Structures are given as structure tokens and as C-alpha cells.
Automatic annotation (TrEMBL):
GO CC annotations, alphabetized: cytosol; perinuclear endoplasmic reticulum; plasma membrane
Protein name: Oxysterol-binding protein
PANTHER family reported in the protein's UniProt record: OXYSTEROL-BINDING PROTEIN-RELATED, OXYSTEROL-BINDING PROTEIN-RELATED PROTEIN 2
GO annotation (BP), single: lipid transport
Region feature (Disordered): 1-26
Gene3D superfamilies: 2.40.160.120
Organism name: Oncorhynchus mykiss
Length: 361
């Protein structure tokens, strides 16, 4: 095996740094207070025929405050992290195959798309679902474990109406594939992910290569897209935080409609932090609606003319004099929701409000 084909998994200790000594023992003692009763397929024993899934992991996360990150990463600048031996404290107690299942957390958006008769409204729901796939990464600074070649993970969620299987199909480069389908035959969701990680001194950048595909079987439509870049900042000093940036293009291969979403970089003063802005166009490249919001909160849809007029008015208005709209609505990006396109929203609690948006968290 030559150097180009080498691949390293996480290790349990630090060879070049002694600052981690004493941290493991305390962490394992803390872990002892948690319930570690064996479970079947990650769920508790059925009670009265009802399966209860666990809500917390059986052990806490290790503390990262007692070792030097710089002692490990100072020789890794500009290199791909998949070829570097990393301490186990960098990892969260999940494998990458398990992390993939979090894509399905907002399956109700796919179910909603299956019920809509208009192709543009379906694209709006699919766009919200595509954005929601990265929402679980907010404040998730741990690295998932690298699965073994041929390792699989299966999940069935009767409550959300889908089943999923994921498999590690390549060791180097590390490639994970997944396939999910509706229990009632409404949709099929599949794809592969090849995360390329690079260290740039103060941050770690992840490029999630791979195509994601969603098929709405009832409408005979196929949508494809790729995920945006992900960057973890302050890996050496300061508080760790996550940023998503880049352009995501969602293409409806059946109608030719396209949704272009721009995950904006944070900027120097954090004005654009978490902000997503884009539009939906038909096959003749005519803009039909504008989509904007935050990937940590929700997505809004509005017609282009209304969006531009409110954008100009917002620049002239005094933000201090703007009053809050209806209770429970968010003033995203400085816009007053009651000035935008009327409609409805789907929130976590299922309540209604007469402003069009799609919640993702």
C-alpha cells in the first residue's frame, strides 16, 4: 500500500501531547451515572406493545478542555484530515452512518410535497427539506466515527412513515451511501456522501461531495442536489461554531424547474450568519418566487416583486421603529412578515399563521 492509499481511523490517545492525562478517568466516572442497560436496536423494551426510543445517549461527551488541539493539528495545515490520525476526543459517540439518518428528521416536508398539486409549491417544500438536512449540524462540533468498510445501519420510523439503510461502500476515499423509502410508497430518497475535510489553521472545512436524489413517485418527479460546505471555526482558541456556505442547486429533472439557494458566509460582523437566500425558476429561467431565511430557523417564500420592493423599503426604514408582527412570527433578515406573500406555515407544533414559511427546526 502506497502513501496515497493510506487511511487512518481515530485513536484513543495522544502520542505527542500529555495534556490529556487525567481527563479520561473523570469522564468515565461521570459516565457511570447514566443508564447503560442493553437495548435492542437503540430502543427500550416494548411496554404494552409500544416501542419507546431513547432520547439521550448512554454516556456523556468527553470534555475537550483538557488537551491541546494545536499539538495535533499544527502539522496538518492544508492537508486532508482523512489521512491524519486523530484523537478519539474529537469524535461524538455516533458513526457517520447514524448521522446520515438525521437527514430524515423533517420527513413531513416530503410528505407535504407529495400532497401538493402545483410543481412550484412542491419545489418549495423540497427546498425546505434540502435546507433542513443541514439544520442538525448547528452547534454540532464533534466528528462522527468513520464506519468500517461494509458496515451498515438500518432505521425504521413508523411514526414518520419511512425506513432507511446506510452502508459504508468505500474505505479510502470514505464514501457512505444511503437509501430511504416511504412505508406507503410515496417517495424514495437516496444518495452518497464523500466528505473531504481540510484544516486551515483556525478552522476545519468539510466539502460534502456526492449527489442527493429525491423521487416523488406519485408525481413522477426526480430532484437532485448537493449539500453546501461546512466549516468549524475556532478549533484552536475560542468557542467552536459552525458555518454553512456555498451554492445549492435543486433541479427537478421532470419539469426543468430549478431552485438556486445561496448559503451566505458569515462576514466580518456576522450580519449574514446562517442566512440562506435564493429563488425558483422555470425551464425558461423565469424567476417565479424568492426563497430566503436561516438554515437554523425557517424558510420563507415570496414573489420576486414583493421581495424586491420590501428590500428597498427596508434599507430606507429605521429598524428601531419597526414593530414586531403577529406573535410567534420571526422578523427574518429585517423583513416584516405581514408585508410578504400571504399563505400558511407549518411549525413544530402544527399551528397556523397567515404568513408563508416552512419551519426546519
Amino acid at each position: 500500500m502506497n502513501n496515497d492509499d493510506e487511511f487512518y481511523d481515530a485513536v484513543t490517545g495522544l502520542d505527542s501531547d500529555e495534556s490529556y492525562e487525567g481527563a479520561s478517568e473523570a469522564s468515565f466516572k461521570d459516565a457511570g451515572v447514566y443508564d447503560v442497560t442493553p437495548r435492542s436496536n437503540g430502543s427500550t423494551s416494548p411496554e404494552n406493545g409500544i416501542r419507546k426510543r431513547r432520547t439521550t445517549l448512554p454516556a456523556p461527551m468527553f470534555s475537550r478542555n483538557n488537551f491541546s488541539v494545536w499539538g495535533i493539528l499544527k502539522k496538518c495545515i492544508g492537508l486532508e484530515l482523512s489521512k491524519i490520525t486523530m484523537p478519539i476526543v474529537f469524535n461524538e459517540p455516533l458513526s457517520f452512518l447514524q448521522r446520515i439518518t438525521e437527514y430524515m428528521e423533517h420527513t413531513y416536508l416530503i410528505n407535504k410535497a407529495c400532497l401538493l398539486s402545483d410543481s412550484i409549491e412542491r419545489m418549495q417544500a423540497v427546498a425546505a427539506f434540502a435546507v433542513s438536512a443541514v439544520a442538525s449540524q448547528w452547534d454540532r462540533t464533534g466528528k462522527p466515527f468513520n464506519p468500517l468498510l461494509g458496515e451498515t445501519y438500518e432505521l425504521t420510523r413508523e411514526d414518520q412513515g419511512y425506513r432507511l439503510i446506510s452502508e459504508q461502500v468505500s474505505h479510502h476515499p470514505p464514501v457512505s451511501a444511503f437509501h430511504a423509502e416511504s412505508l406507503v410508497g410515496d417517495f424514495v430518497f437516496h444518495g452518497s456522501i464523500y466528505p473531504k475535510l481540510k484544516f486551515w489553521g483556525k478552522s476545519v472545512e468539510a466539502e460534502p461531495k456526492g449527489t442527493i436524489t429525491l423521487e416523488l413517485l406519485k408525481h413522477g418527479e426526480v430532484y437532485t442536489w448537493t449539500n453546501p460546505f461546512c466549516c468549524v471555526h475556532n478549533v484552536i482558541l475560542g468557542k467552536l461554531w459552525i458555518e454553512q456556505y456555498g451554492t445549492v442547486e435543486i433541479l427537478n429533472h421532470s419539469t426543468g424547474d430549478k431552485c438556486v439557494l445561496n448559503f451566505k458566509p458569515c462576514g466580518m460582523f456576522g450580519k449574514e450568519l446562517h442566512r440562506v437566500e435564493g429563488y425558483i425558476q422555470d425551464k425558461s429561467k423565469k424567476k417565479l418566487c424568492v426563497i430566503y431565511g436561516k438554515w437554523t430557523e425557517c424558510m420563507w417564500s415570496v414573489d420576486p416583486q414583493t421581495y424586491e420592493s420590501n428590500k428597498k423599503a427596508e434599507k430606507k426604514a429605521d429598524s428601531k421603529k419597526q414593530k414586531s408582527p403577529a406573535q410567534g412570527c420571526r422578523n427574518v433578515g429585517g423583513f416584516l412578515p405581514n408585508q410578504l406573500l400571504g399563505g400558511y406555515r407549518y411549525g413544530v407544533c402544527g399551528s397556523f399563521c397567515f404568513h408563508s414559511l416552512f419551519f426546519i427546526v
